[in-house]
Specification:
The protein is of the alpha+beta class and about 525 residues long. The protein has 22 helices and five strands. Strands 1-2-3-5-4 form a five-stranded antiparallel beta sheet, with helices on one face. Helix 6 crosses helix 18. The radius of gyration is 25 Å and the shape is globular. The relative contact order is 0.13.
């Protein structure tokens, strides 16, 4: 008899098709409610079915199990509890395909983007949980970020009417410490995320030895793509900047040498303790390459690091629940101090975001169509399902499964290439994030009437490049970027508010850019049927 638990489970036997169908019905209902696609639902139910069949084969059809279907932390979970010997679903051999091997190797980096299965054996029971990717808020008026902005404005106006003493107590003694803690927590967790994710992404290439060289070349293409977006972003954003006359006087050649040498860590501990982002990226790359060279000798260590990264990414998901506090306090404090007019400056961020996305997307589309003699309407139609999915959800993660189908069936890309490109690009290539990060520093310098020195520009470019590859999420990247460049942290909240107006469009741009990058990269490695692409 199973012991009582704090959550309510149901019981069934593994032979009962009715019970299995009920599990599927309960799961499907929750997935459909959260706007998962038909393909995503089918794949998730297939994972649940595989687990059930594994335990049916091991324990027999009459074995009684407990199960639970629930929503938890913006995910759908199906938990199955089986008494008996320790049997892990991971012990069952999987299909030996490049895609599955790559996705499995990069799984810690894709923890919010693909289905996850966990197994724990405790007190004579197998606890298996199949977890969906994070679902997105499907109605804008349900967005916590939107409500944090609305409430920030509302309470800001109310606080503005309070006596000076009460206003100072609320802003300086209560809200300011909370704001600093929230920023500190987010910034603090980003260090381990960047460090472990870089190790994992590089060392993961070992699981597909014949494509190792291709993997490093793909990362090189990621860097070039990000640099191109950065160049357009900086060039356009400088239109809003008008303080060039006194810039650059503090720069000497030795400053650049010192800067470049400073990104090389002298030990393993200091970068983590100091939160030095460039050193964390370099250290992660070096250690990842070392694990790659050692190969199978360190499989246990790589598995451990992968699990640690999965924990950290899960912890980051929980920490991100406090993110709405930042725009709430930032906007409330600004309005309460009578500086509400400064919030209107965000229009420049919106204009720049849209313009840069349009310029980069259109340029890449024209280049690809011209180079491969493609008709623009044809290639647009082929990529449209990815673009539409990203636009509707304001998130590029939601197009992961659709991207596999489009790559093979519409673009004519070989599965062995898309099996490497897609998970790596999801983990390490996010041009929309580059746009989001490249704009704020220049605008803040304008707001604070601060000149742009050459040394600042070099540091700024290096940080955005490294944060784009490390891919810690825009909010986390902003907090790190602002801290490293000594920019006022309260502006994070302002830009988070205006990001709401660009999220859907920029996500669609990101889907287009990544799809076109994949076509170019696949051609570089002779992994695409151009005739099918032209059709």
């Amino acid at each position: 008899m199973a012991k009582k638990r704090f959550f309510s489970t149901k019981k069934c036997t593994l032979s009962s098709e009715d019970a299995k169908n009920q599990i599927f019905a309960d799961t499907r209902q929750l997935l459909e409610k959260k706007k998962f696609s038909k393909d995503e639902i089918a794949l998730f139910l297939a994972q649940v079915n595989d687990v059930i069949m594994i335990y049916r084969e091991k324990f027999g059809a009459e074995k009684e199990v407990e199960y639970l279907v629930r929503k938890r932390y913006r995910r759908i979970e199906v938990s199955i509890i089986v008494e008996g010997d320790k049997i892990s679903p991971f012990d069952v051999p999987c299909v030996n395909s490049t895609r599955m091997l790559t996705e499995k190797a990069l799984k810690p980096l894709l923890v919010n983007k693909i289905d996850q299965i966990s197994h724990v054996y405790s007190i004579g029971r197998n606890f298996v949980t199949i977890t969906s990717p994070q679902f997105q808020v499907n109605r804008i008026w349900k967005s916590p970020m939107l409500w944090s902005v609305i409430l920030g404005l509302l309470f800001g106006f109310l606080c503005y009417r309070l006596p000076a003493g009460a206003k100072g107590l609320i802003i300086d003694d209560i809200l300011s410490p909370i704001f600093k803690v929230a920023i500190g927590v987010i910034t603090g967790i980003m260090g381990p995320v960047i460090f472990i994710s870089m190790i994992t992404s590089i060392s993961a290439l070992q699981s597909i030895n014949d494509l190792t060289d291709m993997g490093f070349k793909i990362i090189g293409r990621f860097l070039l793509s990000i640099l191109a977006v950065m160049a357009v972003g900086i060039g356009f954003t400088l239109i809003f900047y008008h303080n060039f006359g006194v810039s650059g006087v503090d720069f000497e050649p030795r400053n650049l040498v010192e800067l470049l040498l400073d990104i090389i860590p002298t030990d393993f501990i200091s970068p983590l303790l100091n939160g030095n982002t460039p050193q964390l990226v370099v250290l992660g790359l070096l250690l990842g390459a070392a694990l790659l060279v050692l190969g199978n000798k360190v499989d246990g260590l790589k598995d451990t690091l992968g699990q640690v990264n999965a924990w950290i990414m899960s912890a980051m998901g929980l920490v991100m629940t406090i993110v709405p506090i930042i725009p709430f306090i930032s906007i409330l404090s600004t309005v309460a101090k009578g500086d509400g007019a400064t919030l209107l400056k965000g229009w420049e961020f919106i204009v720049a975001s849209y313009a840069i996305a349009i310029i980069c997307g259109a340029a890449k589309l024209i280049i690809v169509c011209t180079r491969f003699k493609l008709k623009l309407p044809v290639i647009w139609k082929k990529l449209w399902p990815m673009i539409a999915t990203a636009f509707a959800s304001a998130n590029n993660s939601t197009m992961l499964k659709t991207e596999y189908d489009i790559s093979e069936n519409e673009l004519g890309i070989k599965p062995e290439f898309s099996g490497l490109w897609i998970p790596m690009s999801q983990a390490m290539l996010n041009p929309r994030q580059t746009i989001n990060m490249i704009i704020p520093p220049i605008l803040i310098l304008k707001y604070t009437n601060t000149p742009i020195s050459l040394i600042f520009l070099v540091v700024y470019v290096l940080l955005v490049l490294e944060l784009s590859i490390a891919n810690p999420g825009t909010t986390g990247a902003w907090t790190i970027l602002f801290a490293a460049l000594a920019l006022p942290p309260e502006y994070v909240g302002t830009f988070m508010m205006y990001k709401l107006f660009t999220a859907n469009f920029n996500a669609a741009y990101g889907a287009l850019q990544v799809g076109l990058e994949q076509i170019e990269a696949a051609n570089r490695f002779d992994a695409i049927d151009l005739d099918k692409l032209r059709g």
